[in-house]
Amino acid sequence: MLWKKKRGTAASAKRDLTKIKTPHTYAIIFFVVLACWILTYLIPAGKFSTHTIEYTDANGETATRTVLMADTFRYSYNLDTDFVANALNEIRQDSALMEELEVDEQALADLMETDSSQWTQADLDGVGLNDDEMYSLYGEDFYDTSKKLHKTANVWGTEDFGGFGFLNYVFEGLVSGDRSGSAVGICALILVVGGAFGIIMKTGAIDAGIYAFIKKTKGLERLALPLLFVLFSLGGATFGMAEECIPFAMIMVPFVIALGYDSIVAVTVTYVASQVGNAASWMSPFSVAVAQGIAGIPVLSGATFRLIMWVLVTLGAAAFMMVYAERIRKHPDKSVVYGGDAYFRERLDAVTEEEKEFNLGHKLVLLEMLAVLIWIIWGVTQRGFYIPEIASQFFVMGFVAGVTAIIFKLNGMTINSMASAFQGGVSDLAGTAVVVGMAKGILLVLGGSDADMPSTLNTILHGIGTVLQGVPAFIGAWFMYIFQSLFNLVVTSNSGQAALTMPIMAPLSDLVGVPRQIAVLAYQLGAGFVDAFTPVSASLIGVLGVARIEWGKWAKFQIKMQAFFFLMGTVIIAIAVAINFQ
């Protein structure tokens, strides 16, 4: 009897171990921030000089981008003030150089009268001599190279009081950037989209449309998943679809769950598909075109190879998704998000027969949604619309849907209930918006992503480039792919990653002995695939918020898919090296 009791206790303990609670996304990001903060104590800060290059973009027009100069890396040092004092005397006596450097003569004269031993780079900036200009004139001679400096945030503080502290990463992350980028712009977009879809969901049009679709297709609905995957992949390949997936996910999550799958399948068929297309793109203006322009190779060259790659990678990823999807359809309780999906299942089950009726008002709401989505795609691809414009378009979508619902008396919609629905939609995604700011805080703790500002990230970037010199061609190309994948865990902007890494990876590929086209290929595969996994991706976190999936649970599924992606990427890199892809 005692043995049986002990056996039962052991079995219970074993069962409990298999049900360890997944860490909350907020907790995961906090510990990543903490690890990055510790890393800044171990790795000194470094920087590059930058310059502006011109290249031909995907439209055949001349574009410019500021990129780093790979051979200008130096660690952050204090000034060698004795050397600087002599250098300033020489500069002061050379009127032509003074004019060329646009030095403020009076400010320089005033500086020369102060104690040179107390000078800092800020003093030199005040007279018009920035660090890059001094480095171009004197190399590292004007530094005191006896001690490498670290750029480590305080424990607590703000820019105005004591300097940025890592425990303020939430606020600093939320207010970073501008209206057209992360994190302020993305956060605002998420909140507006949430409010707009709060109104749309209140109309009941999406629920009614789902039931009408299932009723009419009669068993053929499973064919919709691979078809949708291909369409979203095409969106990622052609115009870099990412943030646009957030509203689509709001439609797809209840639709896919109604078909018997789970919310993971819904996120995969929308956001993951778009990033598969982005990774294998032959024409994306935000990734391939930028990277090729910076690398100094013809923009959109190598399109045939990439088009074949897109077809094979998309079909392979869609097949991977369907294997998982069919397993979940047969055994729904095996899904790691089965409990969380109960929210959508219960809502669908609560729809009455009357509400399932697909009437004219519902059809008009869905047609209006389709019209706005087409308007958004046209605006993004033809007019260069971005976050502010997209947010405005989605607000119009929600507003018109609400007015239509009032006119046709859908679900008892009134002006007040329309406002309440908007408020509820904003509330549902407020937590997701906070995650976007938190994730941006990781980059701030590492010192930021500006190549011309001292940071731990720049030192890591330089170190990887140094390690890869002199290795065999395939190994070099493969490690470029690995590096670009890991780098995307911190910098998720495709164009930003290209600006930071391609000036180093392109000349490095010459040293390794592979064409620069392969360096671009390694970049796009690494950046695209990992965007479907990294917890610092604002777009991914937005889609997961819509689907009510914690990142930890998403990672349990996605880590397997990432392994599949990595294998495909490795094979593609090997083929590219074997055929000397130009």
Question: What this model shows, in words?
Answer:
The longest helix has 31 residues, at 415-445. The chain is globular, with a radius of gyration of 27 Å. Residues 1-18 have low confidence and may be disordered. Strand 2 (50-56) and strand 3 form a beta hairpin. It has helices at residues 2-17, 25-42, 81-93, 95-101, 105-112, 121-127, 131-138, 169-174, 184-203, 205-217, 224-239, 245-258, 263-279, 288-295, 303-330, 342-349, 353-356, 360-383, 387-408, 415-445, 456-467, 473-487, 494-512, 516-530, 538-547, 551-578, and strands at 46-47, 50-56, 62-68, 74-75, 78-79, 143-144. It has a two-stranded antiparallel sheet. A two-stranded antiparallel ribbon has the order 2-3. It is built from 26 helices and 6 strands. It is mainly alpha-helical. The termini are far apart.
